[in-house]
Amino acid sequence: MKTLGTHPQHSIINVGGLVLIYCFLCVLMLLFSRSFFSEILWEGQLPNLLDLVIFCTIPGVILVIFAISVQSFFQDIFTHRTGSKFQVKLLAYFILIVVFASIPITSITIQVPAELVGFWKTIDVDTVTDHAEQFVLDTYERRLETLEVLILNTDCDVFMAGDLPEGIIGIQDFALSEETWVSREFMGTTEQLTAPPNLQPGFVAREMPRDIDTIRYVLYPEENVLRLISYSLGTGFDHTREIIETTRDRFTSLNFLKRNLWPFLIFYYGVFFLPTILMTLVIAVSFTGRVTQPIVELTDATQRVAEGDFSFHIMTRQQDELGLLIASFNTMIRDLKQSQESLVKAEKISIWQSMAQQLAHEIKNPLTPIKLSAERVLRRWRNEPERIGEILESSMLAIIQETEGLANMLTEFRTLSRPTEPSQSGTKLRELVEEIIAPYRTSYPGVLFTMDYISADVSVKVDRRRLSQIVTNLIINGIDAMNGTGSLDIWSDLVKKRENRYCRLSIRDTGKGIIPEDVSRIFTPYFTTKESGTGLGLPIVERIVNDHGGSIWFNSAKGLGSTFFVDLPLEEEV
Q1: Where are the domains of the chain?
Q2: Which of 76, 90, 273, 526 has its Cα between 20 and 30 A from that of 44?
Q3: Is the pLDDT of residue 21 over 80?
C-alpha cells in the first residue's frame, strides 16, 4: 500500500532541517562576527576581499534557498493548488510578526553606534596620546643623558668593588680570549649575558625582550676588556610605552569607524542580519506548507477515492482533531480496499478460468496438424508402403515441430503459474548483460547496443538463470519493436526505497512504441502484439521480478519507443 506523508510537496528541506541550518548559521555568524569586528576595531580597516567573499557566501546561499522556496510558493498560488490560499494567510501573519519584532531592534542597533560615535567625537584622544608619548620620549632621553654623565664622571672600577649607584642595575666585563669574548666578571641584578650585545663603544641598540626596561652602554676600560653597563629605565617603562601606542592605534580604528559608519552598518546588516531574516522567512514558508499539507492530503485523497484508487494510506503524527479525522479516513479506505480485494479475487478466478480455456485452445491448435500428419503416414503405409519414404520425413518433422511448440507453451505456463523461490546468491549485472548482448550484436547489425552506464561492481540478488530470463525477454522485445533497426540503450542506477537499496535496470528502444489501448494489457498472460508470440514473456518477467521483491514498469509513446524499468534488490556486502 502506498503512503502519503503530510509534508509539503515542494519543500527543499523539512522544518527540522531548516531550524538546524538556522542554528548552524547563528554559530557561523558569531564566529565570523568576531573576525569582522576585530578587523574593524583592532586593525582599523574593512575586511579584505577574501573575507568579503566568505562573508557574502552565507547570505548568497540563503538567498538562493529563499528564492527557490518563494518560487515554489508562488507556483502553488498561480496553479491554484489546494491549500495555497490558507498558506498565504498564515505566511502573511508570520511576516507581520517578524516585521513588528525587527523594526524596534533594528532602530536601536542603528541608534546605539551613532550615539557612541557622537560621544567619541567629544573626546580629544590625539592630544592626550601626543603628550603621553612626548613624556615617555623625554624620560628616555633623560635616562640616556644621566647614564652617559655617570659613566664619563665616575670610575667604574670602584663600582665593581662596592655597591652600584642608583639606576645602574648591572656591570659585566668580557675578556678577549682567542678571538672570542668571554664573560669574566659580573655584578648587579639584571640578566647576565653570554656575549657582548655590541662591540662598538657607546649606547647599544635596544633589542626586545632582552633589553626590556633597560638601556646598555659599552666601553673599553683597558685593552682586550669590554665593559657592559646596564641602566634601568624604570619598572614598567616599556609596558607603559606599549599601552600608549596601543591606545593610539585603537582610537585610530575608532576614527576610521567614525568616518565609515554607514558603510559599516550596511555591510553589517547585509552579512549578519539579512541571512537570519531570510532564513526565518524560509522556515515560515516551509512551516505554513507543513501546517496546510494535511488538508491538502485529505483533499487529494478524497479525489483519488472518488476515482477508485484505494491503494494508499495517509501518514500523520498529529494527535489533534485533524489527526483523528485522518485516522478515520484511513479506516474508511481500508474497508473499501478489502471490498475491492474481494472483487479482485473473484476477478482473478475468472481470469484463470479464461487462461485455462485459452491454454486448451492453444493446445488444440497444434493437435490438428499432428493428427493429420500421423493419419497421412498411416494411410500411405496401408495403401502404398513402398512410397512411405516420400512423406515420412516431412510428416515426422511436422509432428516434432508442433510437439516442441506444445512443450514450450506448457513450460512457460508452468513458469508463470509456479512461484519463484527468491535467490540467496548474487549475479554481476554488467557481466551477464554483456554475455547476453554478444550474439545479438552479430545477428542484428542494424541495432546499436549501448551499455556504457552499467557499473561493473553492481551485483543483484537474483540467480543468473532468472536474471538472464528477465534481460533476454526485454532485449528481444526491444529488437522486435524496432524491426531489427534502431538503438537499444541499457543502463543502471542505484536507488533507495525506505530502508532497502535497489539496482534500477533501464532498457530503452527506439521502436514503434506501445499504443495507449495496449498499455494496461502488456503484462496480461497470452496478450501479444507479435504474430508468433505466446503472450507469456512479459508476464513471466513480471512474476520473477515480483517474487524477488522487485518491481517493473515502463514508459512508452507511440512512434517514440519504450523504456522498461526493473528494480532488483542489491546483493548485501559481506
Answers
A1: 2-122+253-306, 155-238, 321-417, 427-569
A2: 273
A3: no
